[in-house]
Amino acid sequence: MSDNTGISGKKNKIIESRDLVKKFGDFEAVKGVSFSVFQGECFGLLGPNGAGKTSIVKMIYGFSPITSGEMQVFGEDISARARAIKTRIGVVPQEDNLDPELSVWDNLMVYAGYFRIKREQARERAGQVLDLMELTEKADTAVNDLSGGMKRRLTLGRALINEPELLILDEPTTGLDPYARHLLWQRLRRLKEAGTTMLLTTHYLEEAEQLCDRLLILDRGEILEEGSPADLVEIHVGREVLELGIGYEEIASLTEGAGDLVKDYHVLGDNVLLFTNRGQALSDLVAGNAEKMSITLFYRRLRPSNLEDVFLKLTGKTLEDIPQGPEGY
Amino acid sequence: MARTAQLLKGVATLPDISWPLVGRVFYRNFKVFMKTWKANIMFNFVEPVLYLWAMGFGLGVYVSKINGLSYIEFLAPGLIASSAMFSTCYEMTYDSFTRMNYHKTFHAMAATPVSMDDVLMGEIIYGTFKGMLYGTVFFMITFLFGLVKSPLALFVPVPLFLLTLCFSILCLIWVSIAPNYDFFGYFFTLFVSPMFLLSGIFFPVENLPAGIRFLPWLTPLYHAVEIIRPLVLGQVTGAVLVHLGWLAAFVALTLRLPLVMVKNRLVQ
Q1: Do A110 and B27 touch (CB under 8 A)?
Q2: Domain A13-232 is classified in which CATH homologous superfamily?
Q3: Is A87 on the interface with B (CB under 8 A)?
Q4: Which of B21, B105, B267 lies closest to A97 in CB terms?
Q5: A119 vs B: CB within 8 A
Q6: B102 min Cα distance to partner chain A (Å)
Q7: pTM for the structure as a whole
Q8: Domain residue spans in chain B?
Q9: ipTM, 2 decimals?
C-alpha cells in the first residue's frame, strides 16, 4: 500500500460520507452508509447488482440528490458546491456515454470545453491522453468504429482530460474481454502510482483485489464489511479454502478432530467450502477421516481463498447475480 | 398527479446557469451540425420550396386575390415561419430525445462542471438557432422569388427568434414526458400539423368556422405569421406589437418548465 500521509502527517480526506441515505420513492437504495476515502488510495465499493454502488457514486459527483446524510468531497458539501467540486473530478460512468456523433479527438476536445480548458491546453491534454490510452492513431476515427475495449479506454481518457484529483470509476471493465480488462487495469495502476485518488465500484472480485487498497462490501444498500482485501480474506475465511463434494450432514464426521483448523464453512450447492489457515493439514485430515469412514470424496480441491469467499460468507448468498470473470480465479 | 408534481419539482426555484458552459453545450451541437449542414440544409429546403411551388404557382392560379395579394405573396411569408418551426421541432424532439435517451450526452455533460440547467439551456438555444437558420434561408428564397416587398423584412429574425424559442420549449416539454419515439408522432399529428394548416399560412384565419376561430390565437405559429407577413409586405400596424407581446410572454412564462421537467425525468 502506498503512503497516503501528507506533509502534515495527517491523511487527507477526499471523500467523506456520513449516514448517506438514498430513497427512490419508497425504495431505500442506500441505507445510511458512512465511509471515508483518503488521498492517493484506491477505494472500492464491492457488491452485487442492486447493492447501491451506483447510487452512491452518483451522489458523490452530484448527479443524484442526497435524500439524507452528508457527502463531502474535497472537504466541501457536494449539494452546495457541485460545480466547483466537479471541476476536480473525473467520472467513468457505468454505461458508455461517449459522443457517437463526434470523432475520438473531438470527443476529448469538446469534453475539455465543459471544463473550460483553454484550446491550446486542451489540445496538449488530448494528445497526452490518447498517448496514454494508446489511441493516438484512432484520433480521427468515429467513436462507433471503436472496439468495446477502445471505447472504454477512451471513456477513461476523457475522464482524465481535466487532470482530476479524484477519479470515479463505476464498473469500469464490465462487459470487457479479459485482455481489454487487463489493459485497463494496467492504466489504472499507472494512474494510482501517479497519486490519483480513485473510487471504484465493481462486482468483479478480482478487480477489487487487483486494484483496491481498501474496500466496502455492500449488499442491499448496507455496509457488510470494510477493510483491505487481504485483511478481509484473512479475518473472515483464512488463507485457504478446501472445496469438498459432500453433503451438509457429512461435515461433522469428516472434520472430526480438526479443532480450530476449520475457521468456518459454507454450503454452496452440492459442495461444502471449509475455510482454513492451514489447508494442507486440513486436507490430509479430511482425507484420513474419509478413508476411516469409507466415504468416497468425489471432489476435493484446495485453493487459495479470495474475496469471493468473503462475500459468500458475509452475504450467505451464492453469486448468481454476479457475472463471473471469464478468466476465472 | 404525483407524477406531475414530481416532474414540476423545483419550478419556482432559479435555474443554475453558467452562460459560458451553456455556450459549450451549444458548441457541441453546432460542431455536429457543421459536419452535415450541407446535406441538412438542402433537405430542409426541399419541402417548403415544393409547397411554395405547388401551392403558390399551382393552386395559386385558381385562387383569386386574398386581401388584395396574389396567393403566392400571401403564402410565402407564412412558409418562412413554418419552415423555421419544423426545423426546430425535428431537432428538439427526435434529436434531443436521442441525445438524452440513447447517446446519454446529457448524462456525460452533467458529470462535468456543466449543470443540467446548462445542458437544457444549451439545447434550447441550439433548437432556436437551427430554426432561425432555416427560417432565414427560406426567407432568402422568398426574396429570390421576388416576394419580399419591404425593407422592414430585415426585422424578420426577431419574430423568428421568439417563434423558434417557443417551439424549443414546447418540444423539450414533450421530450420530458415522451416514453419513446412513437410519442413524437402524436406531437406532430396532434399539434404541429394542425397548427401548420390552420395558423393563417394557407388562408386567413377569419375563414375558419366561428366556433374554432379562437384556436389559432392560442398557437405561437399564428402570432409569428401575423408578424412576419406584415414585415415582408411592408404593411405593419400596431397589431404586430400585440403578437410580439404574446410570443414574448409565452417564452417568459414557459422557459423554466422544460429545464425542471427534463431534469426531473433524468435525475432521481
Answers
A1: yes
A2: P-loop containing nucleotide triphosphate hydrolases (3.40.50.300)
A3: yes
A4: B105
A5: no
A6: 9
A7: 0.89
A8: 35-267
A9: 0.91
